[in-house]
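SEQUENCE-TO-STRUCTURE ENTRY
===========================

Subject: a protein chain together with a token-level encoding of how that chain folds.

Sequence line: the amino acid chain in single-letter code, read from start to end.

Question of interest: how does this chain fold, as expressed in backbone structure tokens?
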Amino acid sequence: MSDNLRNYTKALYGFDATVRRTASSAWSAPSPCPGWTAADVVAHNVGMCDMIAGFTRGVSAKGPRQDRLDDPAAAWQSSLDGLLAALDTAGALQAVAKTPWGELPVDKFLGFAWVDPVVHTWDLAQAVGEPTVLDADQVRRGITQLERAGASLVGPGRFEPAVEVSSDADAVDRLVALSGRNPR
């Protein structure tokens, strides 16, 4: 297993744990993502999983779809299962796909895409009032990755510009601020 796949899988399971803790009555709660509900955060992650599963089969994409989900938890589980099966296929990580950031091997795409479910785990937890549980190493590495990427991740369908936080902000607050969210 590559380091990129390991990090991405770990991030997916963190998001999955929050989805599983979410009450069915909470899906319409507003999220920290402007204009998105908790269900929309899940729909985005379903779209990302489906897009990456498609990459392993040579299907190109312009970005994840953003459909409304009748049952976000069930849609997420189905999409996660499909992605994990696709990534477990021989040659999946070496497949080259036309991604929103150019032609890349799937493994390389996962090398920067893993931070997306980490940040969206925070979004979903905030939206539904669940505790935010993020892996400390992924938070630390996510900060480094977002600092390095800077404005290249800002734009429609991506992150908002970074939000300033105090110099003594904790690591989670720094991570979400770098992704354009107000941590408080």
Q: What stands out?
A: The chain has one domain: 3-178.
